Structure formats: structure tokens, C-alpha cells
Amino acid sequence: MVKLNGRVAIVTGGSRGIGAAIAKELAANGVKVVINYNSNNEAADAVVQEIEQAGGEAFAAQADVSDAAQARVLVEETINKYGKLDILVNNAGITRDRTFRKITEDDWNQVIQVNLNSVYNMTTAALSHIQESDAGRIINISSIIGQAGGFGQTNYSAAKAGMIGFTKSLALELAKSGTTVNAICPGFIDTEMVQAIPDEIRAQIVAKIPARRFGMPEEIARGVLYLCRDGEYITGQQLNINGGLYM
Ligand code: NAD
Fold first, then answer.
1. Whole domain around residue 27: which residue ranges?
2. Does residue 183 fall inside a structural domain?
3. 182 DSSP β-pair partners
4. Can you state the percent helix, strand and coil of the chain, rounding each to 5?
5. Which of 140, 191, 220 is the best mutation target for the ligand 1 pocket, counting ligand atoms within 8 Å of the beta carbon and taking the most?
6. Does the reported pTM lie above 0.90?
């Protein structure tokens, strides 16, 4: 088991939903957390406040992680503030759902840029620092849609499957060094992303989930905690947290 006290993490897209839950869970376990946000500084500040009130340490840092230069600045800010980096959680993501016939080039490019290229941008900026840690962790928040596909989600599915391939290849390259690289594949989790789905479709989805409910962001956060604290011999894996929807 790795002592998390004093370790430093970046959580991309950490101001709400799954990212905010991950930031809070890590902070509650002694990790200093950089909460990256793209536009909503009020939401990011609220997460920082909640963490501080609970006795943890965090700061909010603006960056569009789909932009390589901004990703580099985010990592530099982290090093300037905390002096090191142990954990990178690539969580930022968007959907632009349309059936393939209706998808525009822009829908395609944006989803690949934000979900997949951001993982390259952040990992390449952070890697030399993470490798200095005795328990480096890279955790990519992929999706069940990257494993099973999703109607109207060719762009998102391609990006999330790309994250899984990236995870396995980088895990192979880094395994000897003690840095682990894993993907978490959530099923349908009750966040704004899923709340945006029309009620009728949401009901159809729940009916297909063996657990008969959406997951909670905290249930993904506990998976991240597990990989960070207990996961020294777990690398290149997909941790499925989906209520049994995909096995
Ligand atoms: P969300 O929309 O609530 O949160 C996504 C976060 O990413 C937001 O804070 C957003 O501002 C941020 N973000 C978007 N583009 C960004 C950019 N360019 N730079 C920095 N931040 C950016 O969604 P969520 O449900 O919390 O999703 C979190 C992650 O989990 C995403 O990668 C998503 O694809 C994945 N996921 C979600 C579900 C689900 O059911 N909710 C299922 C599987 C995977």
C-alpha cells in the first residue's frame, strides 16, 4: 500500500462531476490536488473551498487541456506550487453525439481533440515529473462506450477506445519504472453529461443496467483511490465500474 499523504495530483476537468469527486476523494486521503478547469472558475473555487474546509489542500488552475501549450503551463504551475507531481488523472471530456451521417467534421475533431489529444498533451508534459515519483500514477478516464460502442457516438467511442490503446502501450513502456498507467471505464454515471440525455432514453438505459441504477461520481473516485493507493502491481488495465452493463 502506498502512503498518499503529501503526494501531488492533477485532475483535469476537476470542477464538477466525476473530476470533482476524484479531486475530493484524493484530497480526503492526504493528496494535494490541482483542480484543472476550462471555463467555470466559480465551480472550481467551490471544490477547492470544500476540500480546504475538510482540512485538505488544493488549488484551481485554468487550462484548456486540448491545447498543448496550455497543458504545459498547467504542469509548470503545479511544479511551481507543490514542487513535484505523482498522479495525473486525465478526466476532461466532452460529447457531441449525432449519428454518423449527421456528424460534422467539427463534431469529430473537437471530441478527438478534447478527449484523446488532451491525454497526449498532459501526459507528455507531465511524464518526466511523474517518473521522479516512487509511485507514479497515470489514470485515464475512458468509458464503457470505448469498449462496447454507443449509438450516435462514433467520435466519442473512437476517442475513448484510443485512450485504452494509449493506456496499454504506455503501461508497457513504463512498467519497469514503477509508474502505472490504467484506464477507468465508467458505465452511465449520474453527472451533467448523463443528465443531458432525454428522460425517455435515460429510462431505457437504466432498464438495461443489471444494477438498475446510474453510478455515482464517488464510485468512480473510489476506483481512482484504489489504483493510487493499492495499485502498485496493476498496470495497463481497464477498471470497469458500470453496474454490470458490460463484462
Ligand atoms: P462533465 O461534463 O460533468 O465533466 C467534464 C469536465 O471536463 C467538465 O468540468 C468540463 O469543463 C471539463 N472539460 C471539458 N473540456 C475541457 C478542456 N478542453 N480542458 C479542461 N477541462 C475540460 O462530465 P463527467 O460525467 O463528469 O465526465 C468526466 C469524464 O468521465 C469524461 O471524460 C467523460 O467522458 C467520462 N465518462 C463519463 C461518464 C458518465 O456517464 N458521466 C461515463 C463514462 C465516461
1. 8-241
2. yes
3. 139
4. 50, 15, 35
5. 191
6. yes
